[in-house]
Amino acid sequence: MVSFIARRVAAALGTLFLSSVLVFLAVQALPGDVATQVLGKDATPDAVAALREKLSLDRPAWERYTDWVRGALHGDFGTSLVSGKAVGSEVSMYLGNSALIALITVLFAVTGSIVLGILAGLYRDRWPDHLISTVSLVGMSVPEFVVATVLVLCFSVALPWFPAVVLYGPDASVGQLLPAVWLPALALAVVMAAYIVRMARTSVIDVMASEYVTTARLKGLSTWRVVTRHALPGAMLPTLHVIALNVAWLAGGVAVVENVFNYPGIGKLMLSSVQNRDLPVIQAIALISAVVYVVCNLAADLGAMALNPKLRTRGRTR
Amino acid sequence: MTTLDTAPPAPPATAPARAARAWRTLRSSRAAVIGLAIVGVHVLIAVLAPLLTSYDPIANDSSHALLGPGWDHWAGTDQYGRDVLARVLYGGRYALGVSVAATLVTVALGTVVGCAAALRGGWFDDVLGRVLDAVLAVPSILALLVVVTALGTGPAVIVLAIAVVYVPQVVRVVRGAALAVVPADYVTAARARGESTWSILRREVLPNITDVVCVEFAMRASWVVLLISSLSFLGFGADPPTPDWGLMVAENRTAITVVPMASLAPIIALATLVVGLNLAADGLSKAWGVDRIREGS
């Protein structure tokens, strides 16, 4: 079991290393000269030379890569080309604001979708199932910006309960941001829940058809007890991976929703840094997202192991 | 080679017979039929758009800006006086054209690489798996934005960017399906005959995973449509004044209290197309017994 965990952690670290190389290559090896890309076509040769100096572009790529990774491990991601501030502190400020949204989203989406998924699974092919399945199909079929726009139309225009846009900068306090968090979180939760509901429904149906649930029923246990004690752990197993993937998806999903609400989070920073070709910031965000993805997957793997004794003894097959 | 002594397997169905059976099971699935019908209607509308409306989707008419729905403009006009209905009808051209091209490239590439990984196995499979994991770790929208900013906007770049982002996921699904075929006797026999990897892939493996690839195509197409519309919404996709649904929502969102139809019409068009694709994918996978969940979608 220890070796299983060790192998998973080692694989995760390997993936992270490869991701960092890919991110670095993708951003640095963009076609054309990076300095000209950043400054635009009409930049003076002096300015280009100065920026090349600043980014130390004349050194070989692998040297810059090792410098970057060494810095990143110590929390130093370089300085932003636009604001001139340290990338690490800037990104973490935006990241904190996004974490607020992400936390509420995950809370809403996971609890809501598991309850709905179990309901749909238990009432298979009856009206609760049809209703839940149809709604989740629609939820899957509309992009986040549409959900966000519709929510704004309902809850800030028709019913002025929540603000439609955030007027604060990235250094706003939690108290200032809190009223503005709910609509973006709800928009993301709707899209995210749609996927989890379908997964949870399928696994509940699978588990309810299994022999151990039949046995539990034959023992005379109440439906509530059968569901909570026997069906739920089994059904959670496949659902865990979908949840992990969705949490990782959040890192990208926030980009769109935050722009709808002008919310000062990591997604907004991502978009503006792509527009301004702020390479150090793009690299930092990509690397942090990769860490989130890898950690979520690792957590799902280990969680699955905790729920399923069979996996603890199984070999490395996936 | 003991397996060769056992009872001979049933002769493989010929291609037309297989296609006929696939078609029969497909028709028995209501979801698949409805989904494919919705997608078909969208394709028809996009192709026939010039016949369905007499308005030019990109012609400005400032004297008729921000009109509500009426006889002349069924869905009203936007801030530049462009007919919203015309823009929605023409909008399918960009969405469908780019999405279909991007999905075709992605699924084709992913299928070949996935089959090759399953067939070759060994270090090739291991290294590929690691690299794909690493690509998947970067959020797709960020990867997309980086490619688009580097190479400039344009349909060809978007197709390429989508392929970069989604090929790893297709490879995973197809590899899983192909792994179930690779141990079969006819693959072993083909290998023993000394056939090349490419020929085994084309003649032995591909025909047996066609259903998985078709479902993957429908599923992936719905994701691609969503991603491309998000990209347009963010201002990195279709260039104004191209009629495009994502772009229309972005343009008309600020005027949503004045002319709600200008935002709602493209939203409805987009949602119905994706619902159609999702229904088709669900229906096909049920009708053909393709278990997407087990294959780690």
TrEMBL record, chain A:
InterPro entries (UniProt xref): BPD_transp_1_N, MetI-like, MetI-like_sf
Where found in the cell? Answer: Cell membrane
Transmembrane feature ranges: 99-123, 135-159, 179-197, 239-261, 281-308
Asked whether the UniProt record includes Cell membrane among its keywords, one would answer yes
BP terms from Gene Ontology: transmembrane transport
How is this protein annotated for GO cellular component? plasma membrane
The record gives the membrane topology as:
Multi-pass membrane protein
**Domain ABC transmembrane type-1 as annotated: residue spans:** 95-300
Q: Which Gene3D superfamilies would you find in this protein's record? A: MetI-like
Domain of life per record: Bacteria
The alphabetized UniProt keywords are:
Cell membrane, Membrane, Transmembrane, Transmembrane helix, Transport
- What Pfam families does the entry give? BPD_transp_1 (PF00528), BPD_transp_1_N (PF19300)
Q: Extract the CDD domains matched here.
A: TM_PBP2
Under PANTHER family, the record lists:
DIPEPTIDE TRANSPORT SYSTEM PERMEASE PROTEIN DPPB-RELATED
Please report which protein family the annotation says this sequence is part of. Belongs to the binding-protein-dependent transport system permease family.
What name appears for this protein in its UniProt entry?
ABC transporter permease
Please name the source species.
Streptomyces olivochromogenes
TrEMBL record, chain B:
* Membrane topology, from the record: Multi-pass membrane protein
GO biological process terms held by the UniProt record: transmembrane transport
Q: Key word Chloroplast present in the record?
A: no
Q: List the InterPro entries hit by this protein, alphabetically.
A: BP-dependent_transpt_permease, MetI-like, MetI-like_sf, OppC_N
Q: What is its main location?
A: membrane
> TM segments?
31-52, 94-119, 131-151, 217-238, 258-280
For this UniProt record, the keywords arranged alphabetically read as follows: Cell membrane, Membrane, Transmembrane, Transmembrane helix, Transport
Q: Is RNA-binding set as a keyword in this record?
A: no
Task: Give the UniProt subcellular location, in the record's own words.
Answer: Cell membrane
Source domain of life = Bacteria
What PANTHER family does the entry give? OLIGOPEPTIDE TRANSPORT SYSTEM PERMEASE PROTEIN APPC (PTHR43386), PEPTIDE ABC TRANSPORTER PERMEASE PROTEIN (PTHR43386:SF25)
Similarity section = Belongs to the binding-protein-dependent transport system permease family.
Q: What is this protein called?
A: ABC transporter permease
- Taxonomy of the source species: Bacteria, Bacillati, Actinomycetota, Actinomycetes, Kitasatosporales
